[in-house]
């Protein structure tokens, strides 16, 4: 997608429009900062992914066509949900829609976001945060976000100042709607992801899929009880990491909506960073004193 394109139609999707409102708010805030115009499709409706598509594919396709027809000026549609984007591409064609990762990963947009991060001066301690990027099955398809080059979530997490770890769970399925229809199978899938996470040494999971975020954030306690050990794993929307790096107003409010609240992790990292700076300053004073004594 060409760098000069800055105006898009915006399809929030059911999850970002309701359960993951913090994701929707952070997408809109970052887009504004980067000079990207997202015009929400008037009276958009559910894309029909999941249960509707399984029961009545024709009705599901009609739902997508209605939203496509309502997109302003035939603009490319941006969405934050990979299931929604996949449905929009399936019905409208591969160039009709793109995941928001593909927009924020663009070189010109990354440059603007990076400038905003640098302009904050004193940053939150994302440099000491180790994150595991989770794509799942849906986002593992590069066609959703444009493809080409490095995987976008890793690039954006590093732009925010976090350290990215390699792990085995990045493309495992998170259960999707199976957690409603077949919860036992869904919990088993989530258990595998959390086992991989525990082996990775990461502090948190980062994702760009509101369905996966909901499953990982909401059901980890059930998974933990089934395993006989507590889980308290912060799960970030990728946009929240960038917002944290900018000290963007409203970020803590967004994070407080998570069931596994990331704020204690951030507070711990702040304290550790302050302690590190004090130790380093003390060491430098000792070295300076020794240097003076030698003279």
Helicity level: 40-55%
Q: Order of strands in the sheet with the most strands?
A: 2-1-3-4
Kindly report the CATH topology of the largest domain: Rossmann fold
Query: Which class do the helix and strand fractions yield?
Result: alpha/beta
CATH class of the largest domain: Alpha Beta
Q: What share of the residues does DSSP label as strand, in percent?
A: 5-15%
Structural Rg: 21 Å
How many individual β-strands? 8
Q: How would the global form be characterised?
A: globular
How many structural domains does the protein architecture include? 2
Low-confidence stretches: none
Put simply, the count of helices is 16
Q: Can you tell me the CATH architecture of the largest domain?
A: 3-Layer(aba) Sandwich
Order of helices and strands: EHHEHHEHEHHEHHEHHEHHEHHH
Distance between the amino and carboxyl termini: 63 Å
**What characterizes the major β-sheet?**
4 strands, parallel
Report the mean per-residue pLDDT as an integer: 89
In short:
By secondary structure, the chain is an alpha/beta fold. It has 16 helices and eight strands. Helix 4 crosses helix 5 (82-92).
How would you describe the overall organization of this protein?
The protein is of the alpha/beta class and 295 residues long. Helix content is 55%, strand content 10%. It is built from 16 helices and 8 strands. The protein has helices at residues 13-17, 21-33, 51-55, 57-70, 82-92, 100-104, 107-119, 136-139, 152-159, 178-181, 183-200, 210-218, 220-227, 238-245, 251-255, 263-294, and strands at residues 7-11, 37-40, 77-79, 97-99, 130-134, 163-164, 204-207, 235-237. It has a 4-stranded parallel β-sheet with strand order 2-1-3-4, sandwiched between helices. Strand 3 (77-79), helix 5 and strand 4 (97-99) form a beta-alpha-beta unit. Helix 2 crosses helix 14 (238-245), helix 4 packs across helix 5 and helix 11 (183-200) packs across helix 13. The model has no long low-confidence stretch (mean pLDDT 89).
